[in-house]
Design brief:
With about 450 residues, this protein is of the alpha/beta class. The chain contains 13 helices and 17 strands. It has a domain of about 170 residues: NAD(P)-binding Rossmann-like Domain (Rossmann fold, 3-Layer(aba) Sandwich), CATH 3.40.50. It is about 30% helix and about 20% strand. Strands 15-14-13-7-12-11-10-16-17 form a nine-stranded mixed beta sheet.
Length: about 450
């Protein structure tokens, strides 16, 4: 996209959104794709934590048709560290630095954003970006709450902008091989799927000690739509104060005010592949039941789920079992089984290893083997569909939230994937659909 053409569209959008809820301008398709005046995508990194820098930013820096033009973080040290990496790569000092995502998204010449912030910010930030005519690549879990996840689906449909739920799992070679074998009938009819996610972030309880907010952290902005809480390091994240480099996994990943837990964060990876294999990426299960455990030490602050054993059933009769153990997807058909392990030495396993030497037929429909970031950039430049759009990301997220509700209600829940409602337990429905926004960040003002 050219700077002049994209800025015209975004100026129009900004003018129309001066009043909340005003009609908006959909980005004209002529400004996207192969006919675009420029083939380079200018992108801003919103969130420069561990994942934002080490996985997302550094990958984009290695792509010739991408230019990182801005970094944004409420932690100034982290943002400065990210800017130094970008400037060193390009051999200049041009990368802009912001502490407010709105200012970053409103800069001229921007085409897209990579959102790598805390989960409770994803929905508002992604909606704000799409109101400005920006394409969005958004970290998983897609959001923190069901209503904002659903709003992203509607916004992506309404605007026609590229929206990718960012997970690299589908691009992993073992996952791709498994999906291609399953979808083309080499295991016969699918009967059962088993998904495991790692035993991660289970030790420790979270130190609640209240300490002064670091001078480089805008803690009020970090909290944003969430309830205001006193600052403690294990509530937020750790940063090397000398270098600005992120340290360890952040504490917010284990606090339900900001993140639903590993059931959703890891589930975004593996449940997505399971739904791909089951042809259910645009729908959901019809029931769920299971058990799970949460932290019980009252001296800590971390409260997200630490163990689970969930059982889903789909309308096509396929059953899916989901638990915390290791990262894998196992698909069982009436003619055999295959298991793709994401990490470790075992790789692929199957009822017969000969299946790994399968030569696909010319008539077979094969899923994409693109990397996650290449998938996003090609969609922006060439107007091609992304592997995991807003709807697929939302369906995975809502399925995981359904699992949480089933565990907490201790009851088998029936789910209508069309109306997206729990049909047999109003209390569980309310639990699953709960959300919280401080008035100044009310979601309604961002919905498209």
């Amino acid at each position: 996209m050219s700077e002049s053409s994209i800025n015209l569209t975004r100026r129009q959008a900004l003018a129309k959104f001066a009043v909340a809820g005003a009609a908006f301008t959909i980005l004209p398709s002529a400004l996207r794709g192969a006919a675009a005046p420029s083939n380079r995508v200018n992108i801003a990194m919103i969130g420069t934590g561990r994942q934002g820098i080490n996985v997302n930013m550094k990958t984009f820096l290695g792509m010739e048709d991408v230019r990182i033009v801005a970094v944004c973080d409420v932690d100034r040290k982290r943002a400065e560290y990210a800017k130094s990496i970008v400037d060193a790569k390009y051999g200049n000092s041009d990368c802009k630095l912001f502490g407010d995502f709105r200012e970053a998204m409103e800069m001229q010449g921007l085409d897209a954003v990579m959102i790598s912030t805390t989960d409770h910010w994803h929905g508002i930030q992604a909606l704000y970006a799409m109101k400005l005519g920006l394409h969005v690549c958004c970290e998983k879990a897609l959001t923190r709450y069901f209503d904002e996840s659903q709003a992203l689906v509607q916004a992506a449909d309404k605007t026609g902008l590229v929206f990718r739920t960012d997970t690299e799992c589908r691009s992993a070679a073992y996952m791709t091989k498994t999906a291609n074998l399953v979808l083309n009938g080499y295991l016969g009819n699918v009967q059962r799927i088993e998904v495991g996610v790692p035993k991660e972030l289970q030790s420790g309880i979270g130190d609640p000690t209240i300490v002064p907010v670091p001078e480089y952290l805008d803690y009020e902005m970090w909290q944003g739509p969430a309830q205001l809480r006193p600052y403690s390091v294990d509530r937020v994240h750790r940063t090397n104060p000398q270098t600005g480099e992120p340290v360890q996994r952040p504490g917010w990943l284990r606090l339900s005010e900001y993140c639903a837990g590993m059931i959703c964060n890891w589930g975004a990876h593996l449940i997505d592949v399971a739904n791909l294999c089951n042809n259910t990426s645009d729908t959901g299960p019809i029931s769920c039941e299971g058990t799970g455990d949460f932290p019980t030490d009252q001296n800590g602050i971390w409260d997200t789920i630490v163990s689970m054993d969930l059982h889903y059933e789909y309308a096509n009769g396929v059953k899916l079992d989901y638990k915390i153990s290791n990262a894998y997807v196992r698909v069982e058909g009436d003619e055999g089984w295959i298991q793709a392990n994401w990490f470790g030495k075992s790789g692929l396993q199957a009822h017969d290893r000969k299946i790994f030497r399968t030569k696909f037929r010319d008539t077979d429909k094969l899923v994409s083997t693109k990397s996650d970031k290449r998938d996003f950039i090609d969609a922006v430049r060439k107007d091609t569909p992304v592997m995991i759009d807003a709807k697929a990301g939302h369906r995975v997220f809502s399925q995981c939230l359904l699992g949480l509700a089933a565990i907490k209600s201790r009851e088998k829940l029936t789910w209508d994937p069309v109306s997206e409602k729990i049909t047999n337990n109003p209390q569980a429905e309310a639990m699953m659909k709960y959300s919280y926004y401080r008035p100044e960040w009310d979601l309604k003002q961002f919905i498209i």
